[in-house]
Amino acid sequence: MKNIRVGFLGTGGINGTHAKALLKLPDVQIAALYNHNVEKARAFNQSHAGGQAECFDDWEKMLRTQKLDVLYVAIPPGAHVGQTELAAERGIHLMLEKPIALTLDRAQSITAAVKKAGVLCQVGYHMRHSAPAQKLKQMLTDGSAGRPLMLQGRFFTNGMFPAWWRSPTLGGGQLIEQSIHIYDIARYFMGEPDVISGFCDNLLHQRFPDYQVDDVSASVVRFKNGSIASICASNCADPKAGSICWTIQCEKVIADFTSPDKATFVYTGGRIADEINRGEGQLLREEIVTPYSMYDEVSANFIGAVRDGTPLRSSIDDGLNSLRMVLAAAESSRSNGAAQRL
């Protein structure tokens, strides 16, 4: 496949980021754009696609009339009404922004359509693509990290965000729409979850009538391999200094991600403090910083998979199973913290 024709469902900020990444790759053309407000698609065409794309306010017409190789889907998760299923049916490879839906039924419909069509589908968990995340994943795979033991993560922000994000039927709230990144990272490193218990609420933003979603949440997860995670999210954090970070303790290494693309690795070799204090070997530390844009790597990985079969770092199953986690956490909160088995 020499020239790859790309379509976009949605022309918001994240697809602007994806467009910049795609145009750094050879033989990629942004060919078609959809926005329910076609003027926004036309503006995006001029700013991000060199004026070369056809613009639509009818997504079904775009998918049926345009010969596309891949489609980037970045619409509010509650706005999925069959767009992805139709694209898959037409043999178009897919890059879906997370979460892939707001309900398990819709997510399962999308997953089934992708698998039936046999198309490639990557989900936009960009934090998997950082240099330290890739290093730790390799260490867990080859055994040099030992067993994963404990992950503690947080997603702390402070903002009103777009109107659709504040809607429970379009955005779903911070737990589902934002902190799913941390839940996905936990799955990436720890394996599949077994039981989850959590709480979420709207504590600070009740005075804003259109803010109808959670602004605090906390969950505890037990994974099938016995490891444990605690994950907190807040939209009530320092207004000038948000924090997206996590620490994962493994049997032989501790990785402290001070941001999604930067981490300190502490190589314990499985020794406890008493052994280290007795001088039984040095305690080595390594700073790892990602020398590239994680979003650029998302598209490089996806287009590489389309061109030559490069393995995807996040699949449609990851989209489904990480959504299942946050939906279970939300259900636990509605059940006064009752544990939900996945």
* Oligomeric state of the chains present here: single chain
What low-confidence regions span 5 or more consecutive residues with pLDDT below 50? none
Q: What count of helical segments does DSSP give?
A: 11
The CATH class of the largest domain turns out to be Alpha Beta
Any overview of this molecule?
- This protein has 342 residues and is α/β, with parallel strands linked by helices.
- The chain has two domains: 4-126 and 298-314, Rossmann fold (3-Layer(aba) Sandwich); 127-291 and 322-341, Dihydrodipicolinate Reductase, domain 2.
- It is 34% helix and 26% strand.
- The protein contains eleven helices and 15 strands.
- The chain has a nine-stranded mixed sheet. A six-stranded parallel sheet has the order 3-2-1-4-5-6, with helices on both faces.
- Strand 1, helix 1 and strand 2 form a beta-alpha-beta unit.
- Helix 4 runs parallel beside helix 5 (104-117), helix 5 (104-117) packs antiparallel against helix 11 and helix 8 (180-190) crosses helix 11 (316-334).
- The longest helix is centred in the last third of the chain and has 19 residues, at 316-334.
- The protein is globular and about 70 Å long.
List the helices and strands and how they pair.
Blueprint: E1 4-9, H1 13-22, E2 28-34, H2 38-48, E3 54-56, H3 59-65, E4 70-73, H4 83-89, E5 93-96, H5 104-117, E6 121-123, H6 131-142, E7 148-156, H7 174-177, H8 180-190, E8 193-201, E9 216-223, E10 228-234, E11 243-250, E12 253-259, E13 262-267, H9 273-277, E14 284-289, H10 294-308, H11 316-334, E15 340-341
Parallel strand pairs: 1-2, 1-4, 2-3, 4-5, 5-6, 7-10
Antiparallel strand pairs: 7-11, 8-9, 8-15, 9-10, 11-12, 12-13, 13-14
